[in-house]
Specification:
Layout (H helix, E strand, L loop, with lengths): L3 H12 L3 H10 L4 H19 L6 E8 L5 E9 L2 H4 L2 H17 L11 H14 L6 H19 L5 E2 L2 E5 H12 L4 E9 L2
């Protein structure tokens, strides 16, 4: 059986958490690495939620040009400090986000960024598609479902991550916030394509 030190090392590699956090999680999980990993992930995600209101005054502008030079992306991703902005994990996130924009062609960063007139127009279109005679509460749920799909296709934060369609970009960013310990915000992006 593995020693506590070996288990801590394994847990640190899997989660990126500190030694003391790993030790406490392993003790609480009675040496079960999987349970300890889940506990640390939950703890990290709750910490990430607390960081959401913190100011992001640093960051980086990442560019991605697809092979063939006919498609390019520029994205601004902000964090709290230049220290985090220079880390490999933050740079990797920015690169993944730029590739996501190139591959999935979102129109907006989040659903809050979608103009009200676009939301109203889409809702009107979806309402017109509902067969007549449906009760109002059913119509509302149908429109809500179609708007959810619309946001999922057109808003970067709600898109399925191209490398793992089990998670959204929002979840990817939240995991990175939990790992790096700073708030991260996708500020804006531009996608250029020839033709």
């Amino acid at each position: 059986m593995a020693t506590l030190t070996e288990l801590i090392k394994e847990l640190r590699e899997a989660t990126g958490a500190g030694v003391l956090d790993c030790k406490k999680a392993l003790e609480a999980a009675e040496g079960d690495v999987q349970k300890a990993t889940e506990a640390l992930r939950k703890k990290g995600l709750s910490k990430a939620a607390k960081k959401a209101s913190r100011t992001t005054a640093d960051g980086r502008v990442e560019t991605y040009v697809h092979p063939g030079d006919k498609l390019g992306v520029m994205i601004e991703v902000n964090c709290e400090t230049d220290f985090v902005a220079r880390t490999d994990d933050f740079k990797a996130l920015c690169h993944e986000l730029a590739m996501q924009v190139a591959a999935s062609s979102p129109q907006w960063v989040s659903r809050e960024a979608v103009p009200a007139d676009v939301v109203a127009k889409e809702s009107e279109i979806y309402k017109a598609q509902v067969p007549a005679g449906k009760p109002d509460h059913i119509v509302e749920r149908i429109i809500e479902g179609k708007m959810g799909k619309f946001y999922g296709e057109n808003c970067l934060m709600e898109q399925a991550y191209i490398r793992d369609d089990e998670k959204t970009i929002s979840q990817l960013v939240t995991e990175t916030i939990a790992k790096l310990g700073e708030n991260i915000v996708i500020k804006r992006f531009a996608r250029f394509q020839i033709g």
